[in-house]
From TrEMBL, chains A, B:
<keyword id="KW-0057">Aromatic amino acid biosynthesis</keyword>
<dbReference type="InterPro" id="IPR050812">
    <property type="entry name" value="Preph/Arog_dehydrog"/>
</dbReference>
<dbReference type="InterPro" id="IPR046826">
    <property type="entry name" value="PDH_N"/>
</dbReference>
<feature type="domain" description="Prephenate/arogenate dehydrogenase">
    <location>
        <begin position="5"/>
        <end position="293"/>
    </location>
</feature>
<dbReference type="GO" id="GO:0070403">
    <property type="term" value="F:NAD+ binding"/>
</dbReference>
<keyword id="KW-0028">Amino-acid biosynthesis</keyword>
<dbReference type="Pfam" id="PF02153">
    <property type="entry name" value="PDH_N"/>
</dbReference>
<dbReference type="GO" id="GO:0004665">
    <property type="term" value="F:prephenate dehydrogenase (NADP+) activity"/>
</dbReference>
<comment type="pathway">
    <text>Amino-acid biosynthesis; L-tyrosine biosynthesis; (4-hydroxyphenyl)pyruvate from prephenate (NAD(+) route): step 1/1.</text>
</comment>
<protein>
    <recommendedName>
        <fullName>prephenate dehydrogenase</fullName>
        <ecNumber>1.3.1.12</ecNumber>
    </recommendedName>
</protein>
<dbReference type="GO" id="GO:0006571">
    <property type="term" value="P:tyrosine biosynthetic process"/>
</dbReference>
<keyword id="KW-0520">NAD</keyword>
<dbReference type="InterPro" id="IPR003099">
    <property type="entry name" value="Prephen_DH"/>
</dbReference>
<comment type="similarity">
    <text>Belongs to the prephenate/arogenate dehydrogenase family.</text>
</comment>
<keyword id="KW-0560">Oxidoreductase</keyword>
<dbReference type="InterPro" id="IPR046825">
    <property type="entry name" value="PDH_C"/>
</dbReference>
<dbReference type="InterPro" id="IPR036291">
    <property type="entry name" value="NAD(P)-bd_dom_sf"/>
</dbReference>
């Protein structure tokens, strides 16, 4: 039996449009309704025939929904939830895909008092944005973290988990605040670092931009992928998961200072020891199917 | 006409063995001789039939060479050059593949007074090591930077450039000190940052290693690839390109502090503006063929 017969997606960018495609592929009888704040995006979604109905207002999209998934930047969650409040059926479950969860849980609870809220976060994505960048297999073999509220509806959380399993995800459940600490180190800090170093390279006068681009295969290009991610989404993530990000950043800075000191003093043993430990982590990530084993990310070498 | 008829490769790891394979493929009449300090690596190279002759000493490998390429960690260049000094033909050109160039140029000149030295650096590689990790197309479409000495032999430098073009590389020429500054930002700093953040994640007690690995698709896994690179090679790079690395690190730390401050004070405009600029760099790297255009590095989704 399907976890939901009528699903509404608000926000039809990379993630929202990928959910639509994945639902079509794995649960073709589900009635899919959607909305996006951008008229241009709605037009593209209609042209691509991603959903059964694309409505011009958020409220119209949710009137008979069983599950509503908000796929908008985390800073916009509260406003979008307020937009659907009047039309949301009492028994509908409201979920989301945001990358920070405590702030989203709070925003949804405030905007939708009494509604059944089950925040969630599929840990999947690419550096591209928009409805045309989505694809049905984006969630295959990736984790989706469901973060039920402490006083939330357990059956609703289980149904949301089942929905994500149908899309091909592995589902994990944890509290919103623990989620935010885990993602601060596995996702938010890496993005911040990548954004920083790409900016640093761009500001160098003596090393030209064309040299940075030409010789990026030496390592730099690996950082540029995630530094090409959606700016609005990431601005919101850093502002809404501030405490955890700042703490991880502090730890990172201390560790960087230690290696900096080792370089300055020519302490090769400290460097060697550190560099040896980090190899094992990569191996585990590949072993557990979270990345390609192929060298160089499987980039084509002819 | 071939730039060299007899080529010797000292050090048969990822880069050395890839050169051997590429020479076999593109210049099959070249006589290839090689040596590695490790008996095990020599045995593997013989079994894989990578070269016409694998000798048990470095000296024996160079006796009739026209081009000798040292493919060892940059900290070992001086010692290996000293080993071949007595057997090196006077007209032979000695080159290398090291990632820092001023220190290598100095080490080679000191160990081989009077020899024709043309340092070079193919900006190519993977996170894997050893003779079995090499492949012939590693240098295709990648840059090779030739860094002739100020008082060096221009004809020799041109021949080395032609050799790399035959292996499929694009060739650029610059002074060793400029090379070291360019690579400090495009390669050395990215590796240092990646090594650091992977270590930081590994040291967290509250977020378990298994959580870091599970949810690495959120961005972290992109860093683990280069943090899995060869520890000896990278220790030597940081110790031999200390000044440029420390300077780039200083700039990076200042930029990171600026973003940190924006997060702490909730300055979304500064974050958004910064994140918008970095997208353009990624586009240029893809446009110039230095990385795959496919989303997510073209990782398989299925």
């Amino acid at each position: 039996m399907l976890p939901f017969a009528r699903v509404t997606i608000i926000g039809l960018g990379l993630i929202g449009s990928s959910i639509a495609r994945a639902v079509r592929e794995t649960m073709p009888t589900v009635r899919l309704t959607g909305h996006d704040a951008s008229a241009e995006v709605r037009e593209i979604a209609r042209r691509l025939d991603l959903l059964d109905d694309v409505t011009d207002t958020a409220g119209a999209a949710v009137t008979d929904a069983e599950l509503v998934i908000l796929c908008v930047p985390v800073g916009a969650m509260g406003a979008v939830a307020a937009e659907i409040a009047a039309d949301l059926p009492a028994e509908a479950i409201v979920s989301d895909v945001g990358s920070s969860k405590e702030s989203v849980a709070k925003a949804l609870r405030e905007a939708l008092p009494g509604a059944i809220v089950v925040p969630a976060h599929p840990v999947a994505g690419t550096e591209q944005s928009g409805p045309e960048a989505g694809f049905a297999s984006l969630f295959h073999g990736r984790w989706c973290i469901v973060t039920p509220l402490a006083d939330g509806d357990a059956v609703a959380a289980a149904r949301v988990g089942e929905f994500w399993r149908r899309l091909g995800s592995n589902v994990e459940t944890m509290a919103p605040d623990h989620h935010d600490r885990v993602l601060a180190i596995t996702s938010h800090l890496p993005h911040l670092i990548a954004y920083t170093i790409v900016g640093t390279a761009n500001d160098l006068a003596e090393v030209t931009e064309s040299e940075v681009i030409k010789f990026s295969a030496g390592g730099f290009r690996d950082f540029t992928r995630i530094a090409a991610s959606d700016p609005t989404m990431w601005r919101d993530v850093f502002l809404t998961n501030k405490e955890a990000v700042l703490e991880m950043l502090q730890r990172f800075s201390e560790d960087l200072s230690q290696l900096q000191r080792a370089i300055r003093w020519g302490d090769g043993d400290t460097l060697f020891e550190h560099f040896t430990q980090t190899r094992a982590i990569r191996r585990s990530i590949v072993d557990q199917g979270q990345d390609d084993a192929a060298a160089d990310f499987g980039r084509k070498h002819d």
